[in-house]
Write a structure and sequence with these properties.
alpha/beta, 38% helix, 13 helices, TIM Barrel, binds NADP nicotinamide-adenine-dinucleotide phosphate, two-stranded antiparallel ribbon, 338 residues, seven-stranded parallel β-sheet
């Protein structure tokens, strides 16, 4: 492919300017089976060459391992990359579906110090609250996050899986640059409350799992049969048993459109997500995750695909037909509280 760099867009009113597609780095250390460190490092370098500047991690990914793994890459390219990490969540290794969530000030203070140490940087460019603990007022959590900005430990603030009203309450305390939530052809629940609030407030949307955790690429069809025993997707209701078979059939219109564009299924899924910027009049920076340089090239190429009105109409009914929720326990998501 020609190595022209992808266009850029700003996260929020005064957030950083980033390439219009970011890179999800979670799978490099966590959740999606065996990894190859050299291949992951090559993926990071290739992404940067193509203009991908927003790199997404979290303290929860491999209990700090993902931040440590990314640190040398970030340090080698400190002025070119926008580092996004998160606090609030820990996942007991022996209970992959359990979520331990903390939003209180003492927890945030120790979490940011631990992330700064693992990343070995002076400041985090974009610091997200990963999950909401409804026992702590959002205003209190964001006030602590705002203190971190004033102290220079963090440059911009983000929130993940918040509802529209939680986003409004947060923005009243401190500007929020981005909301990160699941958004794809299979997961559109955020369009009810979160997306309208983000548009109204000028907050950017950073869709995670824009490839439906790989299912929308056609690279696996049934998590129980196709993925390793430790793969998190085996715990997600829509990827197993009868649900998986029902959902695999929903890829047919995506396949038809992919053929017309001489593109892959994943590229069409990404083109749909990026089109939501126009549909909803807001900044949308998807962060597809991959550990392979050829796939990052493929994914970045999707930024040039424009879907026709007829194609968008063909894709429109898919999400409503998806069998099974995106998590086994939806109470940890914005949809579970909306
Ligand atoms: N805020 C949150 O709560 C939250 C939750 C989940 C994820 N995230 C973030 O969002 C990022 C992206 O989400 P995700 O990784 O869950 O899901 P995703 O981006 O929808 O899909 C990732 C999966 O698709 C595969 N893939 C990527 N490009 C491909 C291609 N061109 N062809 C075929 N397969 C391809 C990847 O495999 P390979 O890696 O083997 O290429 C991986 O298994 C994560 O890395 C993480 O940083 C945030």
């Amino acid at each position: 492919m020609t190595d022209h760099r992808i266009p850029t867009a700003r996260l929020g009113a005064d957030g950083p300017e980033v390439g219009v597609q970011g890179l999800g780095c979670m799978g490099m250390s966590f959740a999606y089976g065996p990894t190859d460190a050299d291949e992951s490092r090559a993926t990071l370098e290739r992404a940067l060459e193509l203009g991908v500047t927003l790199y997404d991690t979290a303290d929860a990914y491999g209990a700090g391992e993902n931040e440590k793994f990314l640190s040398p890459f970030f340090k080698a390219h400190r002025d070119e990359v926008v580092i996004a990490t998160k606090f609030a969540l820990s996942i007991p290794p022996d209970e992959p579906t359990r979520r331990v969530i903390r939003n209180d000030t003492p927890y945030i203070r120790q979490a940011v110090e631990a992330s700064l140490k693992r990343l070995d940087v002076d400041a985090i460019d974009l610091y997200y609250m990963h999950r909401r603990d409804p026992n702590v007022p959002i205003e209190e959590t964001v006030a602590t996050m705002a203190d971190l900005v004033r102290e220079g430990k963090v440059k911009h603030l983000g929130l993940s899986e918040v509802t529209g009203s939680e986003l409004r309450a947060a923005q009243a305390v401190h500007p929020i640059a981005a909301v990160q939530s699941e958004w794809s052809l299979f997961s559109r629940d955020i369009e009810t409350g979160v997306v309208p609030a983000a548009r109204e407030l000028g907050v950017a949307l950073v869709p995670y799992s824009p490839l439906g955790r790989g299912f929308l690429t056609g690279s696996f069809a049934d998590a129980d049969k196709d993925l390793t025993a430790d793969d998190f997707r085996r715990h997600q209701p829509r990827f197993t048993g009868d649900n998986a078979a029902t959902n695999a059939a929903l890829l047919d219109p995506i396949r038809t459109i992919a053929e017309a564009h001489d593109a892959s299924l994943g590229q069409i899924a990404l083109a749909w997500v990026q089109h939501q910027a126009q549909t909803h009049d807001l900044t949308v920076i998807p962060i597809p995750g991959t550990r392979k340089p050829t796939r990052v090239e493929e994914n970045v190429k999707a930024t040039a695909i424009v879907l026709t009105e007829a194609e968008l109409a063909l894709l429109e009914p898919i999400a409503a037909k998806v069998a099974g929720d995106r998590y086994a326990d939806m109470t940890f998501t914005s949809a579970g509280r909306e």
